[in-house]
Amino acid sequence: MLLAGGARRRPLGDADLRGEDLTDGELNDANLTGADLTGADLRGAYLLRANLTGANLTGANLRGVYLFRAYLTRAELTRAELTDANLTGAELTDANLRDANLTRANLNGANVTEADLRGADLTRAELTGVLLTAANLTNANLNDANLTRVYLGDADLTDADLTEANLTRANLANANLTRANLTRANLTEANLRNADLRNADLRNADLRNADLRNADLRNADLRDADLRDADLRDADLVRLTWSERTRWPDGDAQLMRQRSVPIGGGQYRVQGSGNSGADLSVPPVPVS
Question: Does the pTM exceed 0.70?
Answer without folding.
Answer: yes
